[in-house]
Amino acid sequence: MRVLVRISFVIIALWVSVGPTRPAGQQTIEIATRSGVHSFAVEIADNEAEREKGLMYRKELPEGRGMLFDFHRDQEVSFWMQNTYISLDMIFIRGDGQILRIAENTEPLSTRLIPSGGPVRAVLEVIGGTARKLGIAPGDRVASPIFNAR
Fold this sequence. Notes:
Blueprint: H1 2-18, E1 26-33, E2 36-45, H2 48-53, E3 65-75, E4 78-79, E5 88-93, E6 99-103, E7 114-115, E8 120-127, H3 130-134, E9 141-143
């Protein structure tokens, strides 16, 4: 019992000194819209394997959460919804952080390609209906360390 109490105390002391942290590969991003600034806790998919898997096989995605696909340079990209069970909004973002296009309420399990519509650095996937609900639109700005604000 005494050992368990000591271990618990050490764990609590470490947590207090370091504080709660996000797992590796996560960050908070913000989108500035006409209706205000909206924050999202996102997982980062910045390599081929992570981008290929994305949000496949997940049964839910809470509001305020998402996945940011980083392609490391502006390029045309296309996505599909194969093996993705939840409807998503795909927000296509240029290298300067400006939203180029939004594909709203994508169809789960579809193999139809969803193109970026031009060169983008990243794609943010959030639960379907988020863009409309929060007033996120093309031209809005996304703040994240990956974007070069101009």
